[in-house]
Every structure is written in structure tokens, then in C-alpha cells.
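Hi both,

Apologies for the delay on this - the queue was longer than expected. I finally got the copper (II) ion-bound model through. Below you'll find the protein sequence and the ligand SMILES exactly as submitted, and right after that the C-alpha cells for the full complex including the ligand.
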Amino acid sequence: MTTVTRLGAFTLGLAALFGAAYGVGRVVDPVDPVAQTRPDVARTSAPTTSGEAADLVPGGLLVSDRGYTLQPVTAPAGEFAFRIDGPDGRPVTRYDVAHDKRMHLIVARRDLSGFRHVHPELAPDGTWRVANPLAGAGQWRAFADFTPTGGEPLTLGVDVTVPGELTERTLPAPATSTTVDGYTVTLTGTPQPGRTSALTLTVSRAGQPVTDLEPYLGAYGHLVALRRGDLAYLHVHPDGTPGDGRTPPGPAVTFHAEVPSTGVYRLYLDFQHGGRVHTAEFTVVAGAAPAATGAPTPTGGADHGTPGHGHN
Ligand SMILES: [Cu+2]
């Protein structure tokens, strides 16, 4: 209810701005500015899939959308719990399976550190529970990525504060190669706002291409992008499906992603090999010229960089 009120106020604020702009050139404005802006404001993107255009408002920025509200609930130590309240005000208990799971919970600190992608268990009363993925103190954002049965895919986001001593973490500089758990992952392609860009991630270990990636949640990789500044959320699945006869199990996994704006994004690639899930992370600057392979920064700046800063 509070959220609805707050959104309403936000919409009116926008309407007032647009109304003022219209007022300059039009004495009588027959268009209701609230009706005009409302659909865009109320809209949240579905997880972007290959070839699909991103919606105007990215996912994860709203705690409540289309009648569904993400509601953290008190949980015992070591556990994280929440529910999704539905349009009737009651906790949602029926969800569609998407990518092998009925609920995908993604968490990251506001400084883009601490990324985790986990799968809570649903209790009959609509409460989702999972071993606490929030690794230490900080301002966290939690994203619930789900499809209520009979509804559209949604990603809702909420802030969660974990008290304690805060450590300032600098976002790593843009790079096209990173290592995780002994794997080297390289990135080719640069996301461009407003159009679909191919991003190819190539996995090797000890100098050898990895050609036996294992399916994880129905794909050889899952890519989440978070925008620095507001943590707008994108979840992209790769081209092809394991076992479709044309998609090799590595070393390269290609995604088609459309980012909503220029700016700095952190990419998180989940892939499975050796029976374990690994997460490779990259900082990228959307809208920048493609970086030369192997160069640690596209501009050569020693500073950890604010190219594209400030868009949202
Ligand atoms: Cu998931």
C-alpha cells in the first residue's frame, strides 16, 4: 500500500514535469499526462532472452509491480526468508518453473560486490527460505526473479541492510579477461544501449579450452548484468540449449543482451564444470568502443574509472 502510494506520487511528479514541458507549446492539452506516462512507469522487464528487445524500465528497480510485492520476512540466524504478496494481498504459493526453478534469488551489495544466485525453497504458506546468501555487512540488494502462475515474468528488488563494519570496495576496472576457481574466462563484445549485442564468454583452464561444460539450470551459462548506480537488473540466457544437437558444451558461450543505457555494468557469468558452479565477473562500459583483447582498461586510465557514470 505504501509502495503504491509512493509510486503514485512518483508518477504525478513525472506528469507534472511533462505537463510543464507540454504547457510551453500547447494551451490546451487533451492528453492526460498521467495516463500517458503510467504504462511506462508501471512496466518492469521480463528477463531478456535472445533477440528480444529490453523493455523501457529494466527489471529489479521496483519492490512492487503489477500487484506483486517482494516482502522480506524475519528469519532465524543463518537464513534469508521472504514472500511475494499477490494482487489479492495474500502470499503467492503457485509459481511456474523457469530455467529449472520456481524462484531465482540474486543478491549483490550496492557496490556490486558479493554477488550470489541461489534457489530458495517454498513453504506451503508462501514463504521462501534459503541459507543466508548475504556474506557480511553492507547495503545489499535482493532480486526475486520469478513467474507467478497465470502471470508474467517479474523481477522485484528490495534493499536489505546487514549491520556491521563497512568496507569500501572499489569496482574492478573494465577488463576482458578474469579468473575464477582456476578458470580463465574471456569476454568478447561490448554491450551497446538500445540494440542487441553479442557477448561471447570463453572458458579455459590451465591454457586448455574447456569443452565439457555441464548444463546448469538448462543452459551452459547464465549471465546477469547489474548497472552501477541503481542496480538495474538484466538476466540473459545463451544461444542454444544443451542437447539440441548444435550447441557445443564450450569453450564459448554466446549471449545476446540489450542494455538499457550507456554506463558501467558488472556482468556475472554462472557456469558449471567439475560438478560445481563458478561465477566469473566482469566490469564493462556499455556504449564504449570494443576493448582490445587483453587490455585491462579501454582508455588506459589508472583511475578505476567513471566512464559513463551517472546514467540511469
Ligand atoms: Cu536461478
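Main takeaway for now: The pocket of copper (II) ion is lined by residues 101, 104, 117, 119, 217 (CB under 6 Å).

I'll put the files on the shared drive as well.

H.
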